[in-house]
Amino acid sequence: MDKKVIGFTTTIPVEIVFASEYKPCDLNNVFITDSNPMCYVESAERDGFPKSMCNWVKGIYGVVKESHIDTVIAVIEGDCSNTLALSEILKYKGIRVIPFAYPYDRDKKVLKREIEKLINELSADIEELVVVEKEIEAVRKNLALIDIMTWQDKLVTGKENHIWLVCASDMYGDYKHYNSMAEGFIRGARTRKRIEGINIGYIGVPPILLDFYEFCESIGAHVVYNEIQRQFALPHASKNIVKRYLDYTYPYGIFYRLEDIKKEIKRRNIKGLIHYVQAFCHRVMDDIILRDMLDIPIMTIEGDIPKKLDARTKLRLEAFIEMLESR
After folding, report:
1. Nearest-5° angle of CA 183, CA 186, CA 190?
2. Taking the CB of the first residue and of the last residue of the chain, which one, N or C, has fewer CB atoms within 10 A?
3. ∠ CA 242-259-294 to the nearest 5 degrees?
4. CA 294 to CA 18: how far, in whole Å?
5. Which residues make beta-bridge pairs with 300?
6. What phi and psi values does residue 37 have, to the nearest 5 degrees?
7. Whole-angstrom Cα distance, residue 95 to residue 323?
8. Per-residue pLDDT of the chain (327 residues; tens, 9 = 90+)
């Protein structure tokens, strides 16, 4: 019997979902990989969502509505500041909403309580959870290998790295099949020639811009670090589920993220950073701190709707890469 799909608004302890009667679905991934992602934004606007708000939020709402998903795990702390309001609208529309919160201060006891609440809410099987955790550990090791093959072996493109790591949030709803796909990809990538290009890093939330990675590669840059996407794959995976999601940097503010960013800049020999910010997102203000605390060239680009890079942004990227090469 097929499991019922449960949507979620950002990375949550997906092991718990796999150990329950549900199949996980990251609503962000459905939105941005659709052949016409704007249809979800337009659906939300028809229901009254204003033009002057984040299109990711509207996209998530549109996916829930158009896909007829009736249960959503909403991360109301540690992600988007609009998620609480979104969850109330979804409740009003008859959607079952399960709240989950990452404590801002990384309080271990609070996170443990949130994880226990999610286990109870989904009626997850504890014995099955132990099995799932062990099996998913192997998946994450393969994702870590794909990441190493991006920056150390230089056999994997920035876009491939982005796709494999960002999809770790729900593993396409089937982590065993996802692992088989990853193993096949690794075998194929090992036969390639090394990728040329200056090493750059990408920090910030995954982009809404559809051709960012391809364009960077076309102008001589190799994206060897996708900060948040890598965190979705839990690179510091612990055998303890609470520790695992305490080490996950994304929900806990810019200063905890900076520790990881600084280490990876050095380890991957990164020459410059692209900081992506989403229009109308509170994380735009992180740019002020990042520029003060990182001694490496940073270019900030802002996205709004799902579309390809505009001519102005392409010119800025070209100038940025030329400047890095000249250094």
Report:
1. 145
2. N
3. 155
4. 38
5. 275
6. -60, -25
7. 50
8. 578 999 999 999 999 999 999 999 999 999 999 999 999 999 999 999 998 888 889 999 999 999 989 999 999 988 888 899 999 999 999 999 999 999 999 999 999 999 999 999 999 999 999 999 999 999 999 999 999 999 999 999 999 999 999 999 999 999 999 999 999 999 999 999 999 999 999 999 999 888 999 999 999 999 999 999 999 999 987 889 999 999 999 999 899 999 999 999 999 999 999 999 987 777 778 888 999 999 999 999 998 888 899 999 999 999 999 999 998
Helix axes 55-67, 38-46, angle to 10 degrees: 90
Residue reference for tokens 């996980």: 24
Radius of gyration of the chain (CA): 19
Tell me if 98 sits within 8 A of 74, measured CB to CB.
yes
Q: 44: which residues sit within 8 A by CB, 6+ positions away?
A: 57, 58, 59, 61, 62, 65
AA identity, residue 317: L
303 DSSP β-pair partners: 278
* Amino acid occupying residue 218: S
